[in-house]
Amino acid sequence: MSGRSVAETVRLIFFLFLEGMSPHSIAVELTRRCIKTPGGKDVWNQQTVRRMLSNEKYKGDALLQKEFTVDFLTKKMKKNEGQVPQYYVEGNHEAIISPAVFDMVQAELEKRRSGGSRYSGVSIFSNKIKCADCGSWFGSKVWHSTDQYRKVIYRCNLKYNGEKCQTPHVTEDEVKAAFVSAYNQLVTEKQEIIANAEIIRKTLCRTDDLEAEKRVQEEEMSIAAERAQGLIAENARVAQSQVEYQERYDAPVGRYNAAKARYDEVVEAIAAEVAQSERLLDFIRTMQMQEGILTEFDEGLWSSMVDFVTVGQGKEIKVTFKDGSEIEV
């Protein structure tokens, strides 16, 4: 693919993922559209899509030393699994995806991984309906698939695994009606909701302290890596006890690993805050454009405003919006 088509494809993949599609569904869609893979193949697979969604280079950053040279004569490379330090460089090159969008995707990937069951991504309700009993996601089931009474329902994916959940199934129409009702209650307090969301975004989504700690850990990693490299160079020049050398070398490596572990935690926390800030900003902009109540289900508003809905034992449905507001209907 050309550079331009690569950029367009990357943006499409990120867009489809944030619209609710799974890596598998995205792979099927890209194949259907006759879009070539990065390797020039006609058929996509979900592993390729997943790797692209997690590739930091698309937001302009670079992770150096993902691999290292094992044998300098044969040029044999090996995947770096902690044998040598890795270095994360921000703003290394022009970005295809904004850092905010990339961070939103990473947060969504983690959300789907920790959802308690396999994410399907086949409809706008996938990964949006949650069981009040066990916290797992609802999945679609087809009743009477071969006759005139065919019906699609949603029920807890773990309903019959171990102790049976007491939550009933729901239909798409029931979920749609619940959303319309909850949305109409929300929009009657539009200005207050927007003001509260602005306050939350400005006060709770701050990353100043995290950014400061990130810089501290970066400096610590740099010092430790420089010390380790100095010991390696010295060992190459000067004959010495390898036991003593290893002990001296292990100290800065341990220091580096400790700083890197904390650095990773801080980066993840920053990404979560940025993603939440972007979700709130999108929610605020959507609310500002709304003029009246809904008379029918709106797929766009559902996707942009709803975080998830929770189904209770009495079939009550609680809608949780992306600003944290909860309305039960």
Helix-strand blueprint:
Blueprint: H1 3-18, H2 23-32, H3 46-53, E1 62-64, E2 67-71, E3 76-79, E4 87-89, H4 99-113, E5 129-131, E6 138-143, E7 151-156, E8 170-171, H5 172-187, H6 190-204, H7 208-237, H8 242-289, H9 299-305, E9 306-311, E10 317-321, E11 326-328
Parallel strand pairs: 5-9
Antiparallel strand pairs: 1-4, 2-3, 6-7, 7-8, 9-10, 10-11
Fold and architecture overview:
The chain has 329 residues and is of the alpha+beta class. The chain has two domains: 34 residues, no CATH class; 229 residues, no CATH class. The strands form four sheets. It has a four-stranded mixed sheet. The longest helix is centred in the last third of the chain and has 48 residues. About 2% of the residues have low confidence.
